[in-house]
């Protein structure tokens, strides 16, 4: 009888242990992991300014500033999610977006109404800075057709409880005469933050600097 009681207690303790482990795992799934600011050293590089027109006109592509990409990364023809990388630190959120240069010169713009939205709460965290180029200004990036480059946008820090996000922007720029127009990607919704953090190797392991 004493052995039976000991086995019963052991079984209860074992079940409780599994339950606690499951609860801890579930709890950790509801919180994001913060990255270190030091991990960003050497990869948040600014594109090099090549030319700047004194009379910038957003509707005249001949007046847009021109930059050279500071480096390239490995080939990535995946979806927009597959080409998005996050570093979440306590000070800021860094979003890396990988692009393919289809021509030796391609134009880009980072709008001040771009946001990361907490899927659960609906709160938007708007872009604070685009590293190396001003917001709301269309600019050229010069390189070699077929290269894969990336841009870095800085957003406010996300709270620990923000585990799933939407990525989008409130408005899109107008089409400029003489250009092919802007692609208008759909808003990304309900993307796990951990999934985008897991893409960090796309930058750290495949970066080729100039």
Overall description:
This protein has 210 residues and is of the alpha+beta class. It contains 3 helices and 14 strands. The strands form 4 sheets. A 4-stranded mixed sheet has the order 1-2-10-6, with no helix packed on it. A 4-stranded antiparallel sheet has the order 4-5-11-9. Strands 8-7-12-13 form a 4-stranded antiparallel sheet. A hairpin with a 4-residue loop joins strand 4 and strand 5. About 5% of the residues have low confidence.
Question: Can you lay out the helices and strands and say which pair or pack?
Answer:
Elements: H1 2-29, E1 48-51, E2 66-68, E3 71-72, E4 84-88, E5 93-100, E6 105-108, E7 114-118, E8 124-126, E9 129-130, E10 139-142, E11 148-155, E12 164-169, E13 188-192, H2 193-197, H3 201-204, E14 208-209
Parallel strand pairs: 2-10
Antiparallel strand pairs: 1-2, 3-14, 4-5, 5-11, 6-10, 7-8, 7-12, 9-11, 12-13
Task: Write a brief caption for the model.
The chain has 210 residues and is of the alpha+beta class.
What is the average per-residue confidence, as pLDDT, rounded to a whole number?
86
Task: Extract low-pLDDT stretches.
Answer: 18-28
Distance between the termini: 76 Å
How much helix is in the residues? 10-25%
Total strands: the figure is: 14
Q: What series of H and E elements makes up the topology?
A: HEEEEEEEEEEEEEHHE
Rg over C-alpha atoms, rounded to the nearest angstrom: 23 Å
Oligomer: single chain
Spatial order of strands in the largest sheet? 1-2-10-6
Shape designation: globular
Strand content: 25-35%
Largest sheet: 4 strands, mixed
Class from helix and strand fractions: alpha+beta
Number of DSSP helical runs? 3
């Amino acid at each position: 009888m004493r052995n039976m009681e000991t086995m019963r207690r052991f079984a209860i303790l074992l079940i409780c242990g599994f339950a606690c482990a499951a609860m801890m795992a579930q709890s950790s799934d509801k919180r994001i992991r913060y990255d270190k600011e030091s991990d960003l050293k050497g990869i948040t590089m600014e594109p090099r300014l090549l030319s700047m027109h004194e009379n910038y006109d957003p509707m005249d592509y001949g007046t847009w500033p021109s930059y050279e990409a500071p480096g390239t990364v490995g080939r990535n023809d995946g979806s927009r999610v597959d080409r998005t990388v996050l570093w979440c630190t306590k000070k800021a959120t860094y979003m890396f977006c990988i692009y393919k240069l289809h021509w030796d010169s391609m134009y880009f713009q980072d709008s001040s109404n771009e946001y990361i939205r907490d899927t659960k709460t609906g709160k938007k965290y708007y872009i604070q800075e685009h590293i190396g180029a001003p917001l709301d200004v269309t600019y050229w990036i010069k390189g070699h057709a077929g290269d894969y480059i990336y841009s870095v946008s800085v957003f406010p820090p996300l709270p620990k409880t923000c585990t799933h996000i939407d990525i989008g922007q409130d408005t899109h720029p107008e089409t400029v005469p003489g250009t092919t127009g802007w692609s208008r990607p759909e808003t990304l919704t309900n993307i796990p933050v951990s999934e985008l953090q897991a893409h960090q190797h796309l930058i750290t392991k495949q970066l080729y600097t100039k």
